[in-house]
């Protein structure tokens, strides 16, 4: 009879915290944030430009996106396809993310190739070719992208909800990557002017995370230290405001289901009730077995899935119920959802709070287990004006949430009598029941 060694004891997980960076400033003023992560053999670099989209000129909204998408189409030193070829030779990937808060250029590269790849990364941002044919092609692609989005019911509902929730005077009310009438006006002159005037080391942060074999500070200085933009314009920041409550039905004749958004103007991560309402919204609609999903999907079979949560921006944000429902049950689904969104009669429970805390606390070590995860979160913090220890402070705040605090915060921030409704579906079948169910001011619009 064979014997096996006894099973080793399993200890509870130890305390976890988000990595602590070192901060440096390059000779040109560019902020450098370095995360030294032993064992992470793929380095992730994010160049964060705190260049909010309110800095686009209104007639050319979308120029930030077009400019960003053309960065890797060739540089002064490596024109055309040559840039992509040399970047690929180093095993590096280049990406772009444009949000309302700003622009991120992203580099992922094996640590053994970082010395060669980081100068190429700097080239793309500091001296791109910005060729006329490349600009025209990306404008054409963006216009096609808009058409595709408008043909997608879910995307259309999200765009219409943004338009309905934010005061139209603010950039947040319009598409992040620009709309047809403004994108179509973007040409090479606008792109080059935007890059010349807006891209620069002022209000920019370079984030690097990985297990470095060379000094990342020296490498960053060699790659970016010579980036000088004396005429770089100072950016400005908007603080969006809410629009008046609306109810909008976008007509898609013949649709067998409808996409629904029901919510309002929200708060950002700096709000004093952020942790409390995060826990509450997870219980209401953030988990698979949340209140909304348990009733609308599991019990009634109205939808394949529904969710509810807060989407923070640098200043303010939104909260919304989102889901797709069969056309014949839309009015009842919305009425049921409104009842479920009311926690005054059924407060958040201790069990729901415990489930939410276990999820948020438990998922963090996995979410930030890679250099990319750490750099991505650090980039979010830079764009949102958050401190380096925000993750740890937020997790501590989440762990301290109680059921009464979650219920109270939710009631203070979710205004059930002032919810904006957007529905994309068959108006012939939906207009009357929606009007009769409490939306007498329903606007019916053609797509």
Strand runs, count: 12
The CATH topology of the largest domain is what?
Answer: Cytochrome Bc1 Complex, Chain A, domain 1
Low-pLDDT parts are none
The largest sheet has its strands arranged as 1-2-6-3-5-4
The main β sheet shows up as: 6 strands, mixed
Give your account of this protein's structure.
By secondary structure, the protein is of the alpha+beta class. The chain folds into two domains: 22-224, 2-Layer Sandwich (Cytochrome Bc1 Complex, Chain A, domain 1); 247-446, Cytochrome Bc1 Complex, Chain A, domain 1. Helix content is 41%, strand content 19%. It has 16 helices and twelve strands. The chain has a six-stranded mixed β-sheet with strand order 1-2-6-3-5-4, sandwiched between helices. It has a six-stranded mixed β-sheet with strand order 9-10-8-11-7-12, sandwiched between helices. Strand 4 and strand 5 (102-110) form a beta hairpin. Helix 9 crosses helix 12 and helix 9 (274-286) crosses helix 15 (403-413). It starts with 21 loop residues before the first strand and ends with a strand. The mean pLDDT is 96. This is Pitrilysin family protein. Pfam families: Peptidase_M16, Peptidase_M16_C. Residues 1-18 have a biased composition (Pro residues). InterPro entries: Metalloenz_LuxS/M16, MPP/UQCRC_Complex, Pept_M16_N, Peptidase_M16_C.
